[in-house]
Design goal:
alpha+beta; Alpha-Beta Plaits; four-stranded antiparallel sheet
Length: 97
């Protein structure tokens, strides 16, 4: 059975992981995937994930939620990202149960 959901992808500094996890809990989202030390290139240059401290190292969250929960969560993350920078993507997906 297919169920419509939203997929939220977030890339931001690892120092913000506790704040994102707090927002996951506030939004009553049951799960997430977190990948630490991601590398890539963007408007801020290349991120190689080889830094000695977490301040400049990025993490990648993947979250699947209902539209209502995703909307609340994404709004809260946008407020956080005004201070932190990063990237937030929200897309439509079909969850197979």
């Amino acid at each position: 059975m297919l169920q419509a959901r939203k997929k939220i992808e977030i890339i931001l500094g690892q120092t913000y992981i506790p704040r994102v996890l707090s927002l996951v809990k506030q939004a009553n989202i049951s799960g997430y995937t977190l990948i630490k030390n991601v590398l890539g290139s963007g408007i801020h240059g290349e991120q190689d994930a080889q830094e000695l401290i977490d301040v400049t190292t990025n993490s990648y969250f993947i979250i699947i939620a209902t539209e209502e929960k995703a909307k609340f969560f994404a709004e809260q993350v946008q407020l956080l990202m005004k201070k932190s920078g990063g990237m937030l993507l929200v897309s439509d997906v079909q969850l197979i149960i």
